[in-house]
Design a protein that fits this description.
- The structure holds 2 protein chains of 2 kinds.
- Chain A is 74% helix and 0% strand.
- Chain A is mainly alpha-helical.
- The longest helix of chain A has 34 residues, at 67-100.
- The two termini of chain A are 29 Å apart.
- Chain B is mostly helical.
- The two termini of chain B are 29 Å apart.
- In chain B, helix 4 (85-118) packs parallel to helix 8 (173-200) and helix 6 (138-149) crosses helix 8.
- The chains are: A mainly alpha, B mainly alpha.
- At the A-B interface, helix 1, helix 4, helix 5, helix 6 and helix 7 of A face helix 1, helix 2, helix 4, helix 5 and helix 6 of B.
Chain lengths: 281, 315
């Protein structure tokens, strides 16, 4: 039954199912973003905009004209990028040590990373809220960058140490035979070889920071640092019981564009990173 | 410092035999500690330290609305929380969401993994699109599904048979939880399927072929050969997803804001701290939430005998 037509048909149906699963809600939010706001207030059911309710780019223009929304996009990009760069640098150092060196405390680092990956984020909201207000980190970029780093480090460390194990280490030995120290061998030989892994870790870290909501709503209070998911959720319009759905949808689509671009450009790397980092049983 | 690549001499004995350690091993030990120190400090600064702080705060009746009335109350907050039916109701809702979503994610994710494993055409398109739900902001997913289920602006009521066109999914507990679960399952199934795909790729084709030659049906091969051989991958996926699902917050915040009894433990904790400024009570709930996660992790590891060493070594 290896290549029977029945089986082929089954796979084709499955493939179609996956595509529908992944893309239908995305198509829906895009469709919604083109419905006019008046029709949403009056009720405009159905998947596609009905007769005379197509709004063109109006919602996108309105969303972009909103000062708070633009600030939130700016905050999200800045905070996510800073957190990504710092987290990846620190994780690279740690992952190299874990993959390559024998030292005391290796178990402690791995156990801590595993524990933090499972940590209930919300249980930190209270103490961090209190701490951040005491030391002046509340409602600042740094106040979000620090927790994002802590929570992306485990993923970055795992992904990177999995990559580091597969690097041809003879090259490092060769460099050391030529008189390089451990540190030089690390910096000049291994870093370039490890670049793809570093890249994967960076993308996954960026995804986490871009997606975060709990810290975003609880550790900010103004547009000084409020990131995009928090800004979207507070964007209720005049009537909280009748949200401006199509306007929100336009904002949501804009907020999703960076993710789609990253996915399209780095598809292979992300899949490799996800599957190599998490399971090898 | 010399080579770091040669296997270190008997690392197990290192601790006690300090005088016998070579300079190389000492240097390696030092470098290793230096390299992991920043990561360890950042991770602990934001988790261990605040958690200890929460433990301390949870023993007082500290509220930002009345900061001067702060006093030590011992375990009073815990007693109040644990004897309140509200806490147990949110716990039940959270565990319910966790069990339902992880079950469906596992089943659907496995089907997706098999399809992705076998499919020969359009591989790139499928793998690209499966990453879109994974990468999309949870808040956006919550909005998309909330509007999809909306009676006035959605499409779900029109597409589903046996559902009235103006049915309000967010008016009652179970329909609202259903909508929340749909959003959660939609977003995280792709992640599950990628983890399972990695496990599937490690099942030896020869073994499956051998079973086939011996006359095993497709169903038998699945249950007797494929699934037992990807046990580690499945267990790690369940563990991680279950703990993630237990922390559910974003979807509930966006879709119902906890109305009609859809509050999760995370949401209750958040509401106490951020909206009601009850730092003492909120901290007690934080500690309880943390303990619940520990208990669930422990139960899953014990119940399914998850090989954490394998997960930690490679994962």
């Amino acid at each position: 039954m290896g290549n029977s037509p029945l089986r082929k048909a089954g796979i084709a149906v499955g493939a179609l199912l996956i595509l529908t699963w992944c893309l239908l809600p995305v198509a829906w939010i895009i469709s919604l973003s083109f419905k006019s706001q008046e029709s949403i207030t009056n009720g405009n059911p159905g998947f596609l905009p009905g007769d005379g309710t197509f709004a063109g780019w109006d919602n996108y223009v309105a969303a972009w004209d909103n000062e708070q929304f633009r600030r939130a996009i700016f905050n999200s990009i800045g905070i996510s990028l800073i957190a990504t760069v710092l987290s990846v640098i620190i994780a690279t150092l740690a992952a190299y040590a874990i993959a390559r060196l024998e030292f005391k405390g290796k178990k402690l680092v791995l156990t801590t990373a595993l524990a933090i990956a499972m940590f209930p984020v919300v249980s930190l909201v209270g103490p961090l809220f209190d701490m951040w207000r005491a030391i002046g980190l509340y409602d600042t970029w740094a106040g979000l960058v620090i927790p994002y780093m802590s929570f992306t480090l485990p993923l970055a460390i795992w992904t990177l140490s999995a990559f580091f194990r597969e690097i041809p280490w003879e090259m490092e030995q060769a460099a050391q035979v030529d008189g390089a120290t451990s540190w030089q061998a690390f910096r000049k030989v291994i870093v370039p070889l490890a670049a793809p892994g570093v890249f994967t870790a960076a993308i996954l870290t960026f995804f986490f920071a871009w997606n975060d909501f709990v810290f975003g709503i609880s550790l900010t209070s103004t547009e000084a640092a409020r990131p995009i998911p928090a800004s979207l959720s507070f964007f209720v319009g005049a009537d909280p019981f009748n949200r401006p759905a199509s306007l929100l949808a336009a904002g949501a689509v804009i907020a999703t564009i960076p993710i789609i671009v990253i996915v399209l450009v780095f598809q292979r790397k992300i899949v490799a990173g996800l599957t190599s980092g998490a399971v090898k049983g | 410092m010399s080579t770091a690549t040669a296997p270190a001499p008997a690392p197990a004995e290192k601790k006690k035999d300090k005088p016998h350690q070579s300079d190389r091993a000492v240097a390696e030990n030092k470098l290793g500690m230096k390299l992991v120190a920043p990561a360890l400090i950042v991770m602990l600064f934001v988790t261990a330290f605040p958690m200890l702080q929460a433990l301390w705060l949870s023993l007082s009746n500290y509220a930002l609305t009345a900061p001067d009335d702060r006093s030590f109350v011992g375990a009073q907050n815990y007693v109040t929380a644990l004897s309140d039916p509200l806490f147990w109701r949110t716990m039940l809702v959270t565990v319910g969401i966790m069990v339902v979503t992880v079950f469906f994610e596992l089943v659907i994710g496995f089907v997706f993994a098999i399809v992705m494993h076998r499919v020969v055409f359009a591989r790139g398109i499928i793998r690209t699109s499966i990453l879109i739900p994974y990468g999309i902001i949870t808040v956006v997913s919550g909005f998309a599904w909330q509007f999809a289920f909306s009676g006035t602006n959605g499409f779900v009521n029109y597409w589903l048979p046996f559902v009235e066109d103006n049915f309000n999914w967010f008016g009652e507990q179970f329909p609202a939880l259903f909508a929340i679960c749909v959003s959660e399952i939609w977003k995280t199934t792709p992640f599950m399927s990628l983890l399972l795909l990695a496990g599937l790729a490690q099942v030896s084709e020869d073994m499956v072929e051998a079973a086939k030659v011996d006359g095993a049906t497709w169903w038998q091969r699945l249950w007797k050969v494929i699934l037992p051989n990807m046990r580690a991958a499945i267990m790690v996926a369940i563990l991680f997803r279950a703990l993630d699902a237990f922390r559910i917050f974003d979807n509930i915040f966006v879709m119902t804001a906890g109305a009609v009894n859809t509050e999760s433990v995370s949401f209750l904790t958040y509401r106490q701290v951020i909206e009601q400024f009850q730092i003492g009570m909120g901290s007690a709930l934080s500690v309880l939430l943390f303990l619940s996660v520990l208990v669930i992790a422990f139960l899953i590891v014990k119940l399914f005998r998850v090989d954490l060493a394998a997960a930690r070594q490679e994962g």
